[in-house]
Each structure stands twice: as structure tokens, then as C-alpha cells.
Design brief:
Radius of gyration: 22 Å
Main location: membrane
Keywords: Membrane, Transmembrane, Transmembrane helix, Transport
CATH architecture: Up-down Bundle
Organism: Brevibacillus reuszeri
CATH superfamily: Amino acid/polyamine transporter I
Distance between the termini: 28 Å
Protein name: Amino acid transporter
Shape: globular
Structural class: mainly alpha
Number of domains: 1
InterPro entries: AA/rel_permease1
Strand content: under 5%
Order of helices and strands: HHHHHHHHHHHHHHHHHHHHHH
Helix content: over 70%
Number of helices: 22
Length: about 500
Amino acid sequence: MKQEKEHQLLEDKKDLNKFGYAQELLRDMGGFSNFAISFSIISILTGAVSLYGHGLLYGGSGMMGFGWTIVALFVILIAASMSELASAIPTAGALYHWAAILGSKRWGWYTAWINLIGQIGIVAGIDYSFSLFADPLLASAFGYTSTDTTTLILFGITLLLHGTFNHIGIRLVARLNDFSAWYHIGVVVILVGSLVFFSRHELQPLDYLFQVGQTFSDKPYAIAFLIGLLQAQWTFTGYDASAHTIEETINPRVRAAWGIFTSVAFSFIFGFIMLAFVTLSIKNAAAASQADNAFIYVISEALGGTFGSVVLWFVTFAMWFCGLASITSFSRMLYAFSRDKGMPWSLHWAEISRKYRTPAKAIWLVIILSFALALFDYIVKTINPNTTYTTLAFLTAVSVVGLYVAYGIPLYLKLRAEANGLFQKKHYGPWSLGNWSKPINVLSLIWIVFICVMMVIPPNETAGYALIAMFVVLLIMDLAYYKKHFKGPQAALGTSEEDIKRQEAKFKEL
């Protein structure tokens, strides 16, 4: 076994060298660990739970039956499309490298920055979700009042803890992510079992899960239902983590591709089971939708004070693991982009800790950027306390649009490259959709365009404004930094026209 592993590590190193990169990160993750990091970031106990009130408010109980399923089925198609590219181009740059190789270095540069925007939103959203749940529970235990300020403080402390764990090393984080995957499944079992056997009132009939037409918002049901899809759509983000940790995964062309796909598929199944029983436990949907935290309200009503609090703490700790994994993914993307000099002061963000062999400075930049986004929202709401949107809706909408636009760009470029005969069957890795590849890619793109529009219409227009502001900054960065400093990823381009042709020819041979 040891000889087989050493042989595989050597092959993986040679494979990475073909794309122009040395093996700097510690390659020690197995297939389950690669799956676990994406499964942990998707975290049905974070996205589906923290935005449960959002889904219930706009789409009623039918959001949990129909909304979750509709979103999940389209996301499975997107995940399959991304798995193909991960198998074909196994570098930590992932989306960014795929876009640069299939399109151009400018496509790659914009993809990286748009992905970076989404990653900031997802890290901030996940750890803020943890704080929204943990702060009231801590306040109840220690006798203080939970406010936006105390939530922000806990959010900052959580980010610091996650940064420290990620700095210490990939082995520790990989083990924690392995544990997290089983922990998520175990908590779902505990939660569902508790609601089935210990609920203080009878469960609703099964058809309640699929009732449509009821909304507790001021919008027509059709529009309200579409707005409510944010609950499921934000849950299904971050599964590109399996690709960002691809240079730390053994046999990545197979294992990372399966990690992306299976993390979405299993999240769909376990998430549906969890949402079904939580929703069937609702006694008063109108009261739950208007509560400060709908999920806490439903569980407390169903299970009572002490027992309900214990179950809620189990759920809250799952969010903590989710945040830990998301910082791992984000820092690897930042590291890969920086080693190609895609960011100002790239030498710092691409620096590897000699002791821990992790991108330490990139990790701490992730912490700073994520806190800054939530702090910006906190300041805006302090200045204008009459705002109607929630901080979590703002953060999650930013992450959904940023990430899914970044997911869509390489899929579009792959279709274009195939149409021009530049990307052919020989370029696929061992994980491939075969003849289904093109139609699945097209359906994926249609859904991405649709959902990105839905995520920034009122009441989430603030997220749209924030994204527009970020894109303006990106255009300024294009003029001020891109033209002078960015030569493109080594995986796709060199520094001269001759190098470009040589690299393109090299890719055709891969």
C-alpha cells in the first residue's frame, strides 16, 4: 500500500508539473477528505437552517418540498459539469485556470476576481450564520442580551479561530473535515429522530410539505417563491472546494471530480430529509415566519426548552465546521491566483509557511476580507437602522451571485472551445459525462443566469448594489494592475506570443 501511494504521489506530481507548477502544498488528502471539505462547506445544517425563515417567509411550506428539490436538481447538473473540468485540469486554481486555458488570461483573471468576491461572501455568510445561532444561545446561558454588536464580536472571534486552525496545517483540518462530514449526517439523524419520537405535538400530514400558494410576504406568490429559492441556492455553494484542494488530493483527476459531484448529491438527499421533518413539525407557520429565527422557533416549539437547546447546539457546531472548511477552500484559491501574480502584493499571499506547509498569509487575508464585508454591512445598518433586508440575506446573495457567475464562465468557455474544435474528447479526464456533456452544460448555464437575476431583485437589491460596486472596483483594477502585472497562469500562458503558442500546443497534448 505504501509503495502504491508513493507511486501515485509521483504520478500526481508529474501531472501537476505538466501544467507548469511545482508540488508545494502537502498532498495528503484522500477521496473521502476531498468529498468532506465540499460536503462540509455546502453544510445543509448551515444554509438550509440559517435561511429557513427566509424560505418559509416567501414560499411557505412548499418551498421545502418543491424549492429545495428544483434547486438541487439543477445544481447537480452544474456540479457534474464542473467535475468534468476538474478531472481535465487538476490544478488548485480551478475555475480560474479552467477559464484561462479554455478562454484567455483575461477570462481567467476576471473569473478569479469574481470567484474571490463570492468566496468573501460565503465565508462571511457561514461564520455569521454560526454567530446568529450561537450568540442567542450563549446569551441565554450567560444572561446577556444578544444584539447586532455581540453577534459581530462573536463573528470576529470565530474567524480568528478558523484562521488559526487553517494556519496550523492541512492534516488537522482534513481530519476535522472528515469528522465534520460524519457529524453532519449524525446531527441530521438526531434531529429527525427527535422530531419523530419526541415532538410535543403531532406532525403535519406529508402533503403539507408540498403545499403551494401560501406566502407571508407582501409579494405575489410566484415572485415570492422565486425569491425564497435563495435558501436552497445558497446552501448549494462552495462545492468547488474539492477543486481548490486538488493539489493536496491523491489521484485528484478521479477523487476531486467525485468529491464535487457526490457532495452535492448527498447534500440533496440528507437536506431533503431534514427539511421535511422540520417543516412537518411546524405548528403555526405564520408565527414561525415572523420569528427572529424561524428554525430556532420551530425546534423550540416542537422539542421544548432544554432538549430543544441541546439539539440546536448540535446544529450550531455543524456551522462552525462549515466555516472552517470554507476558509480552507478560499485560501487555496487565493494562493493559486497569487502565485500567478494575479493580485497586488502577490508574493505575500502565495507564500507557503515553512513549518506548516500552508498558505498562511492567504489564510489571514481571507479572515480580514470576510470580516470587512460584515463590518461594512454593520456600519450601513447603524447609519440607516430602518433598512428592511437582513445581514444574512445580504451576505448570502453576494456569495451566490459571485460564485455562480464564476462557475458559469468556464462552462461557457468550454462550450465555445468545443465548438471551435479546441477542446476535444482527448482533453477530458477519466471523469466524463460523454455525449451528455453538452446538453448538461447548456442547462447549467441557463439556470446560472436565471438564479443570478433572482438573487438581486428586491428585497435583495442591496446585494446587487454591492456587487455592482465590486465590479466597478474590478474594472479599475483591470486598468491599474492587470495590464502591467498579470502575465497569466502558468497552467495556460507564458509571457510572449511564442510562449503562448507553445503552451497552447502543450495543452493539446495533455
